[in-house]
Amino acid sequence: MLTAHAPAGYAVSKLAVSMGWIPKSAASPRTAIGIGVFAALLPDLDMIYFLTIDQRQHLHHGYWTHIPLFWVAVCGAAIIGSCLLRCHRIIPLVVLAGVNLLLHCFLDTIVAGILWHKPFSHRYTVFAEVPNVYPYTALNFILHWTFALEVLIWLAAFGVFAWGRRAARRRAIRIPHAALTDF
Ligand SMILES: [Zn+2]
After folding, report:
1. Is the terminal CB of the chain with fewer CB neighbours within 10 Å at N or C?
2. Residue 96 near residue 36, CB atoms below 8 Å
């Protein structure tokens, strides 16, 4: 996935906030969406290590930052820690981050391998192989049919954004009206 991690994270996080799954006591809607989008992008921060320290020696999808079970363990530990510290209000945020981290891994599985079974197996899972036809790697991905999924994700994110704006406008119109009827 080249471009759609952020819009996918936005759409999922915005819907979670709008459905009331993230209580305001945990975080403001804006902060919760920010945490969700950050988590949706977080695994790809390993590109810094890939390009600088590792010098492109290994697939960055083989690093622990792209191992789904690693993130399941991290989020599980964070939830257990929150319970032990009686800080239950952050649990929905941990779950939201976990969902977005796994969403990143799932979206990467479409055209690039992900080690879903690590540490039990070192076999990469991939849904569609992209043939190496063009001299530029990015062009191979952009001109492959799977890129249509990225476009769909962007459209879905814009749809969720527009729906959120419309709902907010409706609420803004309704609130003064409700205030008038109170008197
Ligand atoms: Zn990735």
Report:
1. C
2. yes
